[in-house]
Amino acid sequence: MSRAGHDRAAPDSRAVPDSRAVPDSRAVPDSRAVPADGTAPSDDGNGPPVRLGIDPAACDGIGMCAVVAPRLVSVDAWGYPILVREPLRRRQARAAAAAVAACPRRALFLHRR
Hints:
This protein is an alpha+beta fold. Helices cover 16% and strands 14% of the residues. It has one domain: Alpha-Beta Plaits. It has two helices and four strands. It has a two-stranded antiparallel sheet.
């Protein structure tokens, strides 16, 4: 006979956290960083142009960036992103910011170089 509450499996105390999860706070402050909302356009003539960058160690090749910004990001045979290399214009910076926000691994970023 089983009593109520004893039918459930006990939580596994040996469970380890998912090592692939990337905390939001892992980003390193950078004076060249651009807000992810795309508010820093590159074509205003003030400072270096905005570019899209990637942390290849953080990327899992999920491909959300290519879905959100297909003109800026394509994927290779394994699903890993190939980014445009040229500086982004204002409209492109907005699309890139959307791709940055859509990345589940936080592997994409905008920067000034």
